[in-house]
Design brief:
By secondary structure, this protein is mainly alpha-helical. 79% of the residues lie in helices and 0% in strands.
Length: 56
């Protein structure tokens, strides 16, 4: 899982949200109850991804 998070970090930092979304959505598929990930996504303005992941 940390590999996907590492892969998402660069596009997130450079504002390439569509690219980052691919990795982050996969992380949520693997662990939709990960509150740290959901919180981090919400903080970064990616709450739509977080909500979709939490809904399963």
């Amino acid at each position: 899982m940390s590999d996907l998070l590492s892969r998402a970090h660069q596009p997130l930092a450079s504002g390439q949200l569509d690219e980052a979304r691919v990795y982050l959505e996969e992380l949520l598929r693997q662990d939709a109850e990960n509150t740290d990930l959901l919180y981090d996504l919400a903080r970064k303005g990616l709450s739509k991804i977080a909500v979709r992941g939490a809904e399963g």
